[in-house]
Amino acid sequence: MSEKTMFDIVEAVALFFLNPLFIAVLFTAVGVGYFRVKKERRSFKVRLLPGLTELKRLLAESWPYALVLSILISGAGLLADPGWLVLFSASALIALLTFYYKVTSPIYFASAAFFALYFIEKYMGNFSFRGWTPGQADLLGDLAVTIPVIAGLFLIVEGLLIRRHTIRYASPSLMHTNRGLRAAAFKTKRLWLLPVVFLVPGDMISAFVPYWPQFTFGESAFSFVPVPVIIGFSQVARSLYPDVLFPKIGRAIVWTGGIVVIVGLAALWLPILGWVALLLGVVCRVAISITASVRDRQGGFAVAPRPAGVVIAGVVPGSPGEKMGLLPGEYIRAVNGLQVSNEKELYDAIQLNAAHCRLQVIDRNGEVRLMQQVIYRHDHHRLGLLVVR
Q1: Buried (b) or exposed (e) across 343-362, using 16+ Cβ within 10 A?
Q2: 232 and 322, same structural domain?
Q3: Mean pLDDT in runs of 10 for the chain (389 residues)?
Q4: 140, 282: one domain
Q5: How far apart are CA 59 and CA 72, in angstroms?
Q6: For position 207, what pLDDT does the model report?
Q7: How many domains does the chain have?
Q8: Residue of 220, 246, 263 lying closest to 328 (CA atoms)
Q9: 23 and 110 share a domain?
Q10: What Pfam family does this protein match (any one) (predicted)?
Q11: Could you tell me if 208 and 130 are in contact, meaning their C-beta atoms sit under 8 angstroms apart?
Q12: Do residue 276 and residue 372 come from a single domain?
Protein backbone atom coordinates (compact mmCIF):
# COMPACT_ATOMS: atom_id res chain seq x y z
CA MET A 1 0.00 0.00 0.00
CA SER A 2 1.44 3.36 -1.07
CA GLU A 3 2.21 6.18 1.34
CA LYS A 4 -0.50 8.33 -0.27
CA THR A 5 -3.09 5.57 0.22
CA MET A 6 -2.19 5.27 3.90
CA PHE A 7 -2.44 9.03 4.31
CA ASP A 8 -5.90 9.11 2.73
CA ILE A 9 -7.16 6.31 4.99
CA VAL A 10 -5.82 8.06 8.09
CA GLU A 11 -7.43 11.28 6.90
CA ALA A 12 -10.75 9.51 6.43
CA VAL A 13 -10.70 8.15 9.98
CA ALA A 14 -9.53 11.50 11.40
CA LEU A 15 -12.55 13.26 9.89
CA PHE A 16 -14.69 11.59 12.54
CA PHE A 17 -12.42 12.23 15.53
CA LEU A 18 -11.68 15.81 14.46
CA ASN A 19 -15.36 16.63 14.17
CA PRO A 20 -15.94 19.70 16.40
CA LEU A 21 -18.97 17.99 17.91
CA PHE A 22 -16.88 14.97 18.97
CA ILE A 23 -14.25 17.17 20.63
CA ALA A 24 -16.86 19.40 22.30
CA VAL A 25 -18.76 16.49 23.82
CA LEU A 26 -15.57 15.11 25.40
CA PHE A 27 -14.82 18.38 27.18
CA THR A 28 -18.47 18.84 28.10
CA ALA A 29 -18.67 15.39 29.71
CA VAL A 30 -15.66 16.26 31.88
CA GLY A 31 -17.33 19.53 32.89
CA VAL A 32 -20.60 17.79 33.79
CA GLY A 33 -18.76 15.43 36.11
CA TYR A 34 -16.71 18.22 37.68
CA PHE A 35 -19.72 20.37 38.56
CA ARG A 36 -21.68 17.35 39.80
CA VAL A 37 -18.90 16.46 42.26
CA LYS A 38 -18.69 20.09 43.45
CA LYS A 39 -22.43 20.14 44.11
CA GLU A 40 -22.38 16.83 46.00
CA ARG A 41 -19.43 17.89 48.16
CA ARG A 42 -21.16 21.18 48.92
CA SER A 43 -24.26 19.33 50.17
CA PHE A 44 -22.75 16.21 51.76
CA LYS A 45 -18.95 16.79 51.97
CA VAL A 46 -18.52 13.60 49.95
CA ARG A 47 -19.12 12.75 46.30
CA LEU A 48 -21.29 9.91 45.07
CA LEU A 49 -19.37 8.94 41.90
CA PRO A 50 -15.90 9.88 40.57
CA GLY A 51 -15.72 13.07 38.51
CA LEU A 52 -14.79 11.27 35.28
CA THR A 53 -17.77 8.90 35.41
CA GLU A 54 -19.69 10.85 32.74
CA LEU A 55 -16.69 10.78 30.40
CA LYS A 56 -16.08 7.06 30.91
CA ARG A 57 -19.76 6.23 30.28
CA LEU A 58 -20.05 8.57 27.29
CA LEU A 59 -19.53 5.77 24.77
CA ALA A 60 -19.53 2.65 26.95
CA GLU A 61 -23.33 2.55 27.29
CA SER A 62 -24.27 3.76 23.83
CA TRP A 63 -22.00 1.96 21.35
CA PRO A 64 -24.26 -1.14 21.03
CA TYR A 65 -27.17 1.13 20.10
CA ALA A 66 -24.94 2.99 17.63
CA LEU A 67 -24.01 -0.32 15.99
CA VAL A 68 -27.66 -1.39 15.68
CA LEU A 69 -28.66 2.03 14.34
CA SER A 70 -25.87 1.95 11.75
CA ILE A 71 -26.94 -1.50 10.55
CA LEU A 72 -30.62 -0.51 10.40
CA ILE A 73 -30.03 2.80 8.64
CA SER A 74 -27.55 1.46 6.09
CA GLY A 75 -29.23 -1.93 5.66
CA ALA A 76 -32.63 -0.36 5.01
CA GLY A 77 -31.09 2.05 2.50
CA LEU A 78 -32.13 5.18 4.42
CA LEU A 79 -30.17 7.86 2.58
CA ALA A 80 -29.03 11.00 4.42
CA ASP A 81 -28.41 14.19 2.50
CA PRO A 82 -24.90 15.66 3.11
CA GLY A 83 -26.33 19.11 3.77
CA TRP A 84 -28.77 17.68 6.30
CA LEU A 85 -25.92 15.90 8.11
CA VAL A 86 -23.93 19.14 8.36
CA LEU A 87 -26.92 21.05 9.69
CA PHE A 88 -27.76 18.17 12.06
CA SER A 89 -24.26 18.28 13.56
CA ALA A 90 -24.29 22.08 13.74
CA SER A 91 -27.61 22.04 15.60
CA ALA A 92 -26.27 19.45 18.03
CA LEU A 93 -23.13 21.50 18.66
CA ILE A 94 -25.15 24.66 19.39
CA ALA A 95 -27.46 22.76 21.78
CA LEU A 96 -24.47 21.15 23.51
CA LEU A 97 -22.78 24.48 24.13
CA THR A 98 -25.91 25.89 25.79
CA PHE A 99 -25.29 23.41 28.65
CA TYR A 100 -29.07 23.06 28.82
CA TYR A 101 -29.41 19.36 28.14
CA LYS A 102 -33.19 19.27 27.98
CA VAL A 103 -32.74 20.43 24.37
CA THR A 104 -30.16 17.80 23.39
CA SER A 105 -32.61 15.26 22.04
CA PRO A 106 -31.80 14.18 18.44
CA ILE A 107 -35.41 14.82 17.38
CA TYR A 108 -34.71 18.54 17.80
CA PHE A 109 -31.51 18.36 15.73
CA ALA A 110 -33.09 16.25 12.98
CA SER A 111 -36.13 18.53 12.70
CA ALA A 112 -34.11 21.76 12.85
CA ALA A 113 -31.81 20.50 10.08
CA PHE A 114 -34.74 19.34 7.94
CA PHE A 115 -36.64 22.62 8.09
CA ALA A 116 -33.42 24.63 7.73
CA LEU A 117 -32.90 22.82 4.43
CA TYR A 118 -36.35 23.98 3.38
CA PHE A 119 -35.55 27.63 4.08
CA ILE A 120 -32.13 27.38 2.41
CA GLU A 121 -33.75 25.90 -0.68
CA LYS A 122 -36.47 28.57 -0.70
CA TYR A 123 -34.38 31.66 0.02
CA MET A 124 -30.82 30.61 -0.93
CA GLY A 125 -31.41 28.41 -3.94
CA ASN A 126 -28.12 29.46 -5.57
CA PHE A 127 -26.05 28.41 -2.57
CA SER A 128 -23.34 25.83 -3.30
CA PHE A 129 -20.71 24.14 -1.14
CA ARG A 130 -18.19 21.63 -2.55
CA GLY A 131 -20.62 20.52 -5.20
CA TRP A 132 -23.65 20.34 -2.91
CA THR A 133 -26.67 22.52 -3.67
CA PRO A 134 -30.01 22.84 -1.83
CA GLY A 135 -31.79 21.47 -4.87
CA GLN A 136 -30.29 18.03 -4.16
CA ALA A 137 -32.39 17.72 -1.01
CA ASP A 138 -35.77 16.33 -2.06
CA LEU A 139 -37.84 17.30 0.95
CA LEU A 140 -41.05 16.03 -0.61
CA GLY A 141 -39.44 12.85 -1.86
CA ASP A 142 -37.03 10.38 -0.28
CA LEU A 143 -35.97 12.70 2.54
CA ALA A 144 -39.58 13.10 3.67
CA VAL A 145 -39.42 9.40 4.57
CA THR A 146 -35.82 8.74 5.60
CA ILE A 147 -35.30 11.71 7.95
CA PRO A 148 -38.46 11.10 10.06
CA VAL A 149 -37.68 7.38 10.27
CA ILE A 150 -34.09 8.08 11.34
CA ALA A 151 -35.32 10.67 13.87
CA GLY A 152 -37.84 8.18 15.24
CA LEU A 153 -35.14 5.54 15.65
CA PHE A 154 -33.04 8.08 17.53
CA LEU A 155 -35.98 8.76 19.87
CA ILE A 156 -36.38 5.05 20.57
CA VAL A 157 -32.69 4.76 21.45
CA GLU A 158 -32.91 7.90 23.61
CA GLY A 159 -35.79 6.41 25.58
CA LEU A 160 -33.98 3.09 26.07
CA LEU A 161 -30.83 4.85 27.31
CA ILE A 162 -32.86 6.93 29.77
CA ARG A 163 -34.66 3.85 31.09
CA ARG A 164 -31.50 1.83 31.61
CA HIS A 165 -28.73 4.28 32.42
CA THR A 166 -30.01 7.25 34.40
CA ILE A 167 -31.20 5.91 37.76
CA ARG A 168 -27.75 4.98 39.03
CA TYR A 169 -26.37 8.41 38.15
CA ALA A 170 -29.05 10.48 39.89
CA SER A 171 -27.07 13.01 41.90
CA PRO A 172 -28.63 14.13 45.21
CA SER A 173 -28.41 17.67 46.54
CA LEU A 174 -29.94 19.41 49.54
CA MET A 175 -32.66 22.01 49.04
CA HIS A 176 -34.85 24.02 51.38
CA THR A 177 -38.51 23.07 51.60
CA ASN A 178 -41.37 25.55 52.08
CA ARG A 179 -41.13 24.95 55.82
CA GLY A 180 -37.44 25.81 55.94
CA LEU A 181 -36.25 22.21 56.31
CA ARG A 182 -33.58 20.62 54.14
CA ALA A 183 -34.67 17.84 51.81
CA ALA A 184 -32.99 15.99 48.97
CA ALA A 185 -33.67 16.40 45.26
CA PHE A 186 -32.11 14.23 42.58
CA LYS A 187 -30.74 15.49 39.29
CA THR A 188 -29.51 13.43 36.39
CA LYS A 189 -27.50 15.12 33.68
CA ARG A 190 -26.21 12.63 31.14
CA LEU A 191 -24.60 12.71 27.73
CA TRP A 192 -24.19 9.81 25.34
CA LEU A 193 -22.13 9.67 22.16
CA LEU A 194 -23.23 7.40 19.32
CA PRO A 195 -20.87 6.95 16.35
CA VAL A 196 -23.55 6.27 13.75
CA VAL A 197 -22.70 5.40 10.13
CA PHE A 198 -24.97 7.10 7.59
CA LEU A 199 -25.46 6.21 3.96
CA VAL A 200 -24.87 9.27 1.77
CA PRO A 201 -25.66 9.33 -1.97
CA GLY A 202 -23.22 10.72 -4.54
CA ASP A 203 -19.45 10.89 -4.73
CA MET A 204 -18.98 14.28 -3.09
CA ILE A 205 -17.02 12.83 -0.16
CA SER A 206 -14.83 10.51 -2.22
CA ALA A 207 -13.90 13.45 -4.44
CA PHE A 208 -12.00 14.93 -1.48
CA VAL A 209 -11.01 11.69 0.29
CA PRO A 210 -10.43 9.12 -2.49
CA TYR A 211 -10.21 6.06 -0.23
CA TRP A 212 -13.35 6.73 1.74
CA PRO A 213 -15.54 3.55 1.82
CA GLN A 214 -17.87 3.70 -1.17
CA PHE A 215 -19.97 1.39 -3.31
CA THR A 216 -22.09 1.71 -6.42
CA PHE A 217 -25.55 0.38 -7.20
CA GLY A 218 -26.34 0.67 -10.86
CA GLU A 219 -25.23 4.12 -11.89
CA SER A 220 -25.49 5.58 -8.38
CA ALA A 221 -22.60 5.94 -5.93
CA PHE A 222 -22.93 5.84 -2.16
CA SER A 223 -20.59 6.54 0.75
CA PHE A 224 -20.59 5.43 4.38
CA VAL A 225 -20.11 8.45 6.64
CA PRO A 226 -19.60 8.09 10.42
CA VAL A 227 -21.14 10.98 12.34
CA PRO A 228 -21.01 11.57 16.12
CA VAL A 229 -24.61 11.73 17.33
CA ILE A 230 -25.16 13.07 20.84
CA ILE A 231 -28.08 12.37 23.12
CA GLY A 232 -28.47 14.39 26.30
CA PHE A 233 -30.84 14.12 29.22
CA SER A 234 -31.41 16.40 32.21
CA GLN A 235 -34.16 15.99 34.77
CA VAL A 236 -34.77 16.77 38.44
CA ALA A 237 -36.75 14.40 40.67
CA ARG A 238 -38.22 15.81 43.89
CA SER A 239 -41.62 14.30 44.68
CA LEU A 240 -40.84 11.03 42.92
CA TYR A 241 -37.82 8.79 43.29
CA PRO A 242 -35.48 8.63 40.27
CA ASP A 243 -36.16 4.90 39.82
CA VAL A 244 -39.85 5.77 39.44
CA LEU A 245 -39.73 8.99 37.39
CA PHE A 246 -36.94 8.35 34.90
CA PRO A 247 -38.22 4.98 33.56
CA LYS A 248 -41.62 6.61 32.97
CA ILE A 249 -39.98 9.33 30.91
CA GLY A 250 -37.96 6.74 28.99
CA ARG A 251 -41.03 4.68 28.13
CA ALA A 252 -42.90 7.75 26.93
CA ILE A 253 -39.99 8.69 24.64
CA VAL A 254 -39.78 5.15 23.23
CA TRP A 255 -43.50 5.22 22.37
CA THR A 256 -43.07 8.65 20.78
CA GLY A 257 -40.21 7.33 18.67
CA GLY A 258 -42.32 4.40 17.49
CA ILE A 259 -45.13 6.74 16.45
CA VAL A 260 -42.70 8.99 14.56
CA VAL A 261 -41.31 5.96 12.68
CA ILE A 262 -44.80 4.76 11.73
CA VAL A 263 -45.98 8.18 10.55
CA GLY A 264 -42.66 8.64 8.72
CA LEU A 265 -43.16 5.36 6.85
CA ALA A 266 -46.64 6.53 5.87
CA ALA A 267 -44.90 9.34 3.98
CA LEU A 268 -44.12 6.74 1.30
CA TRP A 269 -47.69 7.34 0.13
CA LEU A 270 -48.20 10.93 1.31
CA PRO A 271 -44.87 12.81 1.62
CA ILE A 272 -46.26 15.64 3.75
CA LEU A 273 -46.73 13.08 6.53
CA GLY A 274 -42.96 13.08 6.91
CA TRP A 275 -43.12 16.73 7.89
CA VAL A 276 -45.98 15.94 10.24
CA ALA A 277 -43.96 13.13 11.83
CA LEU A 278 -41.06 15.46 12.67
CA LEU A 279 -43.33 18.14 14.12
CA LEU A 280 -45.21 15.50 16.09
CA GLY A 281 -41.93 14.18 17.50
CA VAL A 282 -40.80 17.65 18.58
CA VAL A 283 -44.15 18.53 20.19
CA CYS A 284 -44.40 15.22 22.04
CA ARG A 285 -40.79 15.37 23.25
CA VAL A 286 -41.33 18.90 24.60
CA ALA A 287 -44.59 17.81 26.23
CA ILE A 288 -42.87 14.88 27.95
CA SER A 289 -40.24 17.16 29.50
CA ILE A 290 -42.72 19.83 30.60
CA THR A 291 -45.24 17.33 31.99
CA ALA A 292 -42.59 15.47 33.99
CA SER A 293 -41.24 18.69 35.50
CA VAL A 294 -44.66 20.17 36.33
CA ARG A 295 -45.98 17.01 37.96
CA ASP A 296 -42.81 16.55 39.96
CA ARG A 297 -43.00 20.09 41.34
CA GLN A 298 -46.62 19.69 42.43
CA GLY A 299 -45.84 17.23 45.23
CA GLY A 300 -43.66 17.46 48.30
CA PHE A 301 -40.14 16.13 48.58
CA ALA A 302 -39.95 12.34 48.58
CA VAL A 303 -36.71 12.41 50.59
CA ALA A 304 -37.38 14.76 53.51
CA PRO A 305 -36.45 14.76 57.23
CA ARG A 306 -38.30 12.35 59.53
CA PRO A 307 -39.25 12.96 63.18
CA ALA A 308 -37.16 9.97 64.30
CA GLY A 309 -34.40 8.60 62.12
CA VAL A 310 -31.74 9.57 59.60
CA VAL A 311 -32.96 9.79 56.00
CA ILE A 312 -30.75 8.36 53.26
CA ALA A 313 -30.22 10.63 50.25
CA GLY A 314 -27.66 8.53 48.38
CA VAL A 315 -25.52 5.41 48.58
CA VAL A 316 -21.95 5.28 47.26
CA PRO A 317 -21.48 2.35 44.81
CA GLY A 318 -19.45 -0.52 46.26
CA SER A 319 -19.87 0.72 49.85
CA PRO A 320 -21.22 -1.26 52.84
CA GLY A 321 -24.47 0.69 52.45
CA GLU A 322 -24.94 -0.64 48.92
CA LYS A 323 -24.07 -4.18 50.03
CA MET A 324 -26.84 -3.93 52.62
CA GLY A 325 -29.29 -2.90 49.89
CA LEU A 326 -30.03 0.54 51.32
CA LEU A 327 -31.93 2.90 49.01
CA PRO A 328 -32.49 6.67 48.86
CA GLY A 329 -35.67 7.57 50.71
CA GLU A 330 -35.27 4.92 53.40
CA TYR A 331 -34.33 6.05 56.88
CA ILE A 332 -32.27 4.52 59.67
CA ARG A 333 -33.99 4.44 63.04
CA ALA A 334 -31.41 2.55 65.11
CA VAL A 335 -27.75 1.52 64.83
CA ASN A 336 -26.27 -1.23 66.97
CA GLY A 337 -29.31 -1.00 69.23
CA LEU A 338 -29.15 2.77 69.72
CA GLN A 339 -31.85 5.14 68.47
CA VAL A 340 -30.49 7.80 66.10
CA SER A 341 -32.09 11.04 64.92
CA ASN A 342 -29.27 12.94 63.19
CA GLU A 343 -26.03 12.41 61.31
CA LYS A 344 -23.75 12.78 64.36
CA GLU A 345 -25.70 10.22 66.38
CA LEU A 346 -25.61 7.86 63.38
CA TYR A 347 -21.83 7.82 63.07
CA ASP A 348 -21.25 7.83 66.84
CA ALA A 349 -23.40 4.70 67.04
CA ILE A 350 -21.47 3.08 64.18
CA GLN A 351 -18.18 3.62 66.02
CA LEU A 352 -19.41 1.66 69.04
CA ASN A 353 -18.90 -1.50 67.04
CA ALA A 354 -16.85 -0.57 64.00
CA ALA A 355 -16.35 -4.19 62.93
CA HIS A 356 -20.01 -5.12 62.75
CA CYS A 357 -22.92 -2.81 61.97
CA ARG A 358 -26.57 -3.63 62.69
CA LEU A 359 -29.20 -1.26 61.35
CA GLN A 360 -32.94 -0.91 61.86
CA VAL A 361 -34.21 0.56 58.61
CA ILE A 362 -37.64 1.84 57.63
CA ASP A 363 -38.15 1.32 53.91
CA ARG A 364 -40.14 3.47 51.49
CA ASN A 365 -43.34 1.56 52.34
CA GLY A 366 -42.95 2.15 56.08
CA GLU A 367 -41.95 -1.45 56.81
CA VAL A 368 -39.12 -2.28 59.22
CA ARG A 369 -36.10 -4.26 58.06
CA LEU A 370 -33.08 -5.34 60.06
CA MET A 371 -29.77 -5.12 58.20
CA GLN A 372 -26.30 -6.10 59.27
CA GLN A 373 -22.92 -5.95 57.61
CA VAL A 374 -19.32 -6.66 58.57
CA ILE A 375 -17.26 -3.49 58.16
CA TYR A 376 -13.65 -3.85 56.98
CA ARG A 377 -10.83 -1.37 57.40
CA HIS A 378 -10.82 -0.38 53.73
CA ASP A 379 -14.59 0.22 53.62
CA HIS A 380 -16.10 3.69 53.48
CA HIS A 381 -15.99 5.26 56.96
CA ARG A 382 -19.55 6.55 56.61
CA LEU A 383 -20.94 3.27 55.27
CA GLY A 384 -21.06 5.11 51.96
CA LEU A 385 -24.24 6.97 52.95
CA LEU A 386 -25.24 10.50 52.00
CA VAL A 387 -27.88 11.61 54.47
CA VAL A 388 -30.29 14.50 54.86
CA ARG A 389 -29.03 16.74 57.64
Answers
A1: eeebbebbeeeeeebebbbb
A2: no
A3: 54 63 90 92 87 92 93 85 85 90 93 87 65 64 89 96 92 83 88 89 55 56 81 92 93 96 93 94 96 86 83 86 86 85 81 75 86 64 78
A4: yes
A5: 19
A6: 47
A7: 2
A8: 246
A9: yes
A10: PDZ_6
A11: yes
A12: no
Q: Say if residues 330 and 363 touch (Cβ distance below 8 Å).
A: yes
Q: Cα separation of 52 and 186, whole Å?
A: 19
* Domain boundaries, position 383: 310-387
Show the DSSP H helices in the chain as ranges. 3-17, 20-44, 53-60, 63-75, 82-97, 106-123, 143-165, 204-208, 242-266, 272-298, 320-323, 343-352
Q: What's the length of the chain?
A: 389
Closest CA relative to residue 185, chosen from 232, 251, 235, 249:
235
Give CA angle at 290 (286, 296), nearest 5°: 150
Q: Which pLDDT score is estimated for 208? A: 46
Residues 7 and 130 in one domain: yes
Q: What is the pLDDT of residue 1?
A: 47
Q: Which residues pair with 227 in a beta bridge?
A: 196
> Backbone phi, then psi, for 178, in 5-degree steps?
-65, -20
Residues 6 and 364: their CA atoms lie apart, in Å, by 61
CA–CA separation, 39 and 111 (whole Å): 34
At 121 the pLDDT is 76
Q: Which amino acid is at 120?
A: I
Domain boundary among 298, 325, 342: 298
Domain contains 200: yes
Phi-psi region of 45 (alpha: psi -120 to 50; beta: other; left: phi over 0): left
Sign, CA dihedral 90-92-93-98, equals positive
190: DSSP letter: E
d(CA 294, CA 286): 12
End of a domain among 298, 333, 360? 298
The burial class, CB within 10 Å (0-12 / 13-18 / 19+), for 158 is buried
* Per-residue CA distances from 384 to 151, 320, 322, 349 (Å): 41, 6, 8, 15
Residues 6+ apart with CB under 8 A from 334: 340, 349, 359, 360
Can you give the CATH number for the domain in which 363 is found?
2.30.42.10
Kindly write down the DSSP assignment for every residue of 129-170, as one continuous string: BTTB-GGG--TTTTHHHHHHHHHHHHHHHHHHHHHHHSSTTP
